[in-house]
Each structure stands twice: as structure tokens, then as C-alpha cells.
């Protein structure tokens, strides 16, 4: 399972670009809004930088899987409430361009989607279908449990959010500038060339803005590689354990069958005396061996189906 999963991961499409993107996680800045505005201005002025955008959530962060909103939302503020568990993220106008996530209907966020402006949201395909069915949700109103209303301005293509193994994940994006809670942020940067050559410059630029801020800069390839770590570790550790276990099982089965056959030497001699051929004797011994192997495989497969379920959310589907 783990080896096959690792092979599948080499061609896995995460739903966003991992080849031209740098992400910098920032914590502890004195004024988040001023820091983000200054950081974006400086990053966009750097040679080799095509775009920069803030966001709250970092894709493929497994901790997000345990912190998803689970709310009753009302499409068009109607009486029909739909309970939805979704991945929430607040992003800047250029986020979808940087991550190469297509907007299938409507538009991406604009600079005008700021504090004081009417609230806007973008849904992914799965969430749009869950809330609005086959109706085009662009332009419709979504009411939250706290009676806030937000207009759906776009539909983004599905991608991966918390883990590689998630299925039919739903996501809702809100404008970063309309986020009321002041906390850390991630800055996403799209480069025209290899991101590894720009990562250090991005890190130095952000560190100059606020000495008290903690900045951790990575290229998106590293984030994606870290998401593959469970598959790689599982393939190595469990693969070695499986080979060792197979050796022990083979030796044990050989010993059991050898002892069992020795105990039946007199029976085999009588069968041969009565006309049994070497093929008949071989079929008798092999039949007992196959029954033992089939029983062991049945029990092992049943246990494996139960054991891999908790691990499936961290593996490529």
C-alpha cells in the first residue's frame, strides 16, 4: 500500500502550482496590517517576482484537518440550512493567480474587497454543488450562523487543502482584507524563475521590516515533499517490516509443514503401497499448505483493511 502510494504521489496533482511558488509564514509582527502592506509592496518590487499575496492557511498543513468549521449555512438567507464542514481560508486578490487555481465562474477577489465593503466569498466546486446544487451560485447570498451575509463572487477549481488523502473536500475563501482577527499570516510569492534562487531574498526582505517578527520561508516544493513524508516513511519502515515478517512467516510455515509431514510418514507409506503416485502425495501436502496460507491471508487482509483506515487521510487517494 505505501510503496504503491509513493509511486502514485510522483504524478499526483495537488490542484495548485508547486514549481514557481514561495511561502513565508510570519508570526509575532507588531502590526499585522501595516506589516503585510509593506511586505507586499517590497516583494512586488523585487526582480523576478511576478505577484505576492497574503493568506491565513498554508495548504497541506495536516493540522488544518482538525480545525475545520462545521456550520449551518443558509444559501440566499432562506429557510433551508445546510450543515457543511469546510476548509476556510482568507486570501489576497492575487492568491489564485499565484497558486494557479483557476476561477471557473465569476471573479477573483479585488482590492476593493476590503474592510467596510460588502463581504464576498469564493467557493470551491464541491462546496458550491453542496450548497446550491446545479444552480450557478455567483451573485447569490450566503448567510452564516452569526447572521452575517456574504455574496458569492466566484467558483474556484477543487484542490487539496489539509492532506493529500482528503476526498470531496469543501473550501470557502474570504478576502484577507476583510479578516477581523489579527494574527499571523502567510505570504505567497510567485517567481518567474526557479523559486529556490529567490527564497533567501524573500526571507531577508521580510526580516528587515520587523526585527521582532518570526519569518519561516519555504518553497512550495518543500511543503509538498513534507506532505509526502508519511508515504515515504511508511514505505521504508513498513516495507522493511513486511520483508522481515515474510521471512519469519516462511520459516515458520516451513517448520510447521515439515513437522506435519514427518508425522504422516507412515500414512504416506501406506498410501503409496495402496497405489498413490508421487503427484498424489504432493497434492496432499500442498493442499494442506495452501489451506494454511489462505487462512493466514484472509485474517491478514481483514486486519489490514481496518489498520489502514486511520492512515488513509495522509496518503494520496
Number of E-type strands: 12
Radius of gyration over alpha carbons?
Answer: 29 Å
Separate helix tally: 9
Order of helices and strands: HEHEEEEHEEHEEEEHEHHHH
Structural class label: alpha+beta
As residue ranges, the low-confidence spans are none
Give the biggest beta sheet. Answer: 8 strands, mixed
Oligomer: single chain
Looking at the structure, what is the overall shape? elongated
- Strand residues, percent: 15-25%
Cα(first) to Cα(last) distance is 11 Å
The helix content is 40-55%
Mean pLDDT across all amino acids? 87
Walk me through the structure.
The chain is α+β, with helices and mostly antiparallel strands. Helices cover 41% and strands 21% of the residues. Strands 3, 4, 5, 6, 7, 8, 9 and 10 form an eight-stranded mixed β-sheet that branches. The chain has a four-stranded antiparallel β-sheet with strand order 2-11-1-12. A hairpin with a 5-residue loop joins strand 8 and strand 9. The longest helix is centred in the last third of the chain and has 35 residues, at 229-263.
Amino acid at each position: 500500500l505505501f510503496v504503491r502510494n509513493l509511486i502514485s504521489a510522483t504524478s499526483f496533482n495537488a490542484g495548485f502550482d508547486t514549481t514557481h511558488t514561495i511561502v513565508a509564514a510570519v508570526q509575532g509582527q507588531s502590526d499585522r496590517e501595516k506589516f503585510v502592506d509593506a511586505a507586499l509592496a517590497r516583494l512586488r518590487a523585487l526582480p523576478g517576482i511576478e505577484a505576492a499575496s497574503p493568506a491565513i492557511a498554508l495548504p497541506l498543513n495536516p493540522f488544518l484537518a482538525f480545525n475545520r468549521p462545521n456550520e449551518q449555512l443558509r444559501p440566499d438567507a432562506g429557510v433551508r440550512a445546510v450543515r457543511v464542514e469546510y476548509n476556510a481560508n482568507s486570501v489576497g486578490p492575487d492568491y489564485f493567480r499565484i497558486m494557479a487555481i483557476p476561477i471557473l465562474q465569476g471573479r477573483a477577489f479585488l482590492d476593493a474587497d476590503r474592510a467596510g465593503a460588502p463581504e464576498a466569498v469564493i467557493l470551491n466546486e464541491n462546496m458550491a454543488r453542496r450548497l446550491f446544487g446545479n444552480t450557478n451560485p455567483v451573485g447569490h447570498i450566503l448567510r452564516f450562523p452569526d447572521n452575517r451575509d456574504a455574496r458569492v463572487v466566484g467558483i474556484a477549481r477543487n484542490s487539496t487543502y489539509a492532506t493529500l488523502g482528503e476526498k470531496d473536500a469543501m473550501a470557502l475563501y474570504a478576502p484577507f482584507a476583510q479578516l477581523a482577527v489579527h494574527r499571523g499570516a502567510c505570504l505567497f510569492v510567485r517567481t518567474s524563475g526557479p523559486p529556490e534562487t529567490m527564497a533567501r531574498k524573500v526571507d531577508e526582505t521580510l526580516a528587515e521590516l520587523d526585527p521582532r517578527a518570526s519569518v519561516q520561508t519555504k518553497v512550495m516544493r518543500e511543503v509538498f515533499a513534507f506532505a509526502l513524508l508519511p508515504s515515504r516513511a511508511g514505505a521504508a519502515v513498513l516495507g522493511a517490516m513486511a520483508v522481515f515478517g515474510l521471512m519469519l512467516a516462511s520459516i515458520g510455515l516451513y517448520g510447521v509443514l515439515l513437522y506435519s509431514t514427518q508425522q504422516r510418514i507412515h500414512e504416506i507409506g501406506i498410501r503409496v503401497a495402496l497405489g498413490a503416485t508421487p503427484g498424489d502425495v504432493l497434492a496432499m501436502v500442498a493442499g494442506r499448505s495452501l489451506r494454511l496460507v489462505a487462512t493466514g491471508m484472509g485474517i491478514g487482509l481483514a486486519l489490514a483493511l481496518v489498520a489502514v483506515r486511520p492512515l488513509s487521510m495522509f496518503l494520496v487517494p
